[in-house]
Write a structure and sequence with these properties.
With 440 residues, this protein is an alpha+beta fold. The chain has 16 helices and nine strands.
């Protein structure tokens, strides 16, 4: 034994099996010499009745003096009940954000992660979540340890996504397919919401104690308040009539028209099945909408259209595509081309849905009625056991879709609110009484 100095460390001769030289001034501090000639500083101690050895680092990176100071610090931790070797092993095994995300994805795909209404997440939601994980979360945080993440880290991540640091164009599995990842405020808000769910999953699994996204100040959503004016509805009617004369765009124009008359979501109409159409009940019984199964009242113009088309359509889907019993494809590309170079260039299916709800509001219907018409969570009719809808909902669907249909056909109304108009209410009462007397 001798004091470990730079001259001594570099003069020690390697042996065939490797050996340790201990410092004679500082018990527990030593130099391990490997057969290859490599040298590293170590510290040996006892913790909970066990002898433990901790490697400080290689000679050259560490000097005898810096290694001795580190050894003193480590033995000080041991004196206070610590175990540096065990802590290092835990650090090596510590879960990274990437590993946590992969576990979350596996459980999500197995149906173990619940979404709205306590139901397993839908395939479309899973695909969206996986995209956000692989394109935003993992590139920015993947190598970080889960337990080291703090709220400032979350704030910085959100700012990076808003600033577009994850912006990229990448190929997808589809032929000639590509994904354009832009980032931005909306993407950041949704990604942070997803990450909050992932950290809650980690808390439940005992990986961490607290969710670092809690209390994070997120920017508000930019409310998409674009709606069609009555003049724009008439312009839309002209565009759809012209498109229906084209074999290429006819079926896509009919989809747009049905979205306009129902306020349904794009996917609900594109993937609509004949088995979900209840003409007698004047509703669509959607098996798998965003809110789960949903009963959606539809007006007479929609019923008449579906009655007219039913004898001419075969297969499962109302709007069939190519191949064996598929739903129509290429809808996003088609509606964009239909509206390109027109005053409605910025109109999307969501704008048509929002406009339907706005017309219903203009006509005086309540928020809960409008929610039921468009299948919003706070008012959607979700029970599959509902066989007969409230006549009020059917009347509302008739009124709104009839009004929209008239606008598409070029009608110009002098006013757009009726429910609270006294004369209209009186006329409705007289009509009801007249019909009641006739029935008796």
């Amino acid at each position: 034994m001798t004091k470990l100095t730079k001259r001594f460390v570099e003069a020690v001769e390697p042996q065939s099996k490797g050996h340790v030289v201990w410092d004679d001034e500082f018990p527990g501090f030593g130099l391990r010499v490997y057969p290859s000639g490599k040298r590293s500083y170590i510290v040996q101690y006892r913790s909970r009745g066990r002898s433990r050895r901790y490697t400080i680092g290689l000679h050259g990176v560490w000097t005898p003096e810096t290694a001795r100071r580190e050894a003193k610090a480590l033995l000080g931790q041991v004196a206070h009940g610590g175990d540096p070797a065990e802590e290092r092993e835990e650090d090596r095994k510590a879960l990274t954000i990437k590993q946590l995300c992969e576990q979350y994805i596996a459980d999500m795909e197995a149906g173990l992660i619940l979404g709205k209404g306590g139901r397993p997440k839908k395939d479309t939601t899973i695909a969206t979540d996986v995209g956000r994980i692989r394109r935003h979360i993992i590139p920015l945080l993947g190598t970080r340890r889960v337990r080291d993440i703090t709220k400032p880290d979350m704030n910085n991540l959100m700012k990076d996504i808003i600033a577009g640091k994850t912006r990229v164009t990448m190929k997808t599995e589809k032929l000639r397919g590509k994904a354009i990842v832009r980032g931005g405020r909306g993407t950041a808000i949704r990604t942070m919401g997803l990450l909050g769910g992932i950290f809650s999953y980690a808390v439940e699994a005992g990986v961490i104690e607290h969710n670092p996204t809690h209390g994070l100040r997120k920017p508000k959503y930019q409310v998409r308040d674009r709606r069609l004016s009555e003049a724009e509805y008439r312009a839309l009617g002209d565009i759809l009539r012209q498109a229906q004369q084209s074999d290429r765009y006819r079926i896509h124009a009919e989809i747009l028209r049905l979205i306009t008359l129902t306020g349904c979501r794009r996917g609900e109409i594109v993937n609509l099945k004949w088995s979900e159409v209840d003409l007698e009940g004047s509703c669509l019984r959607l098996a798998d909408s965003k809110e789960g199964s949903s009963v959606r009242p539809v007006g007479l113009p929609v019923v008449e259209y579906l009655e007219q088309e039913r004898p001419h359509r075969t297969g499962t889907y109302v709007f069939p595509g190519q191949g064996f019993d598929n739903a129509v494809g290429n809808f996003p590309q088609s509606w964009k081309k239909l509206f390109k170079d027109t005053p409605l260039w910025d109109v999307t299916p969501h704008v048509l849905r929002h406009s339907f709800a706005s017309i219903a509001n203009d006509l005086g219907f309540t928020e809960i009625t409008i929610a039921a018409l468009i299948g919003h969570a706070k008012g959607s009719v979700t029970s599959k056991y509902v066989h007969t809808l409230d006549s009020t909902l059917i009347m509302a669907a008739d009124t709104v879709s009839g009004y929209v249909k008239a606008l598409l056909e070029g009608v110009e109304f002098r006013r757009n609110t009726y429910t609270l108009d006294r004369q209209s209410r009186q006329n409705a009462i007289e009509l009801m009484l007249t019909e009641s007397r006739s029935a008796t």
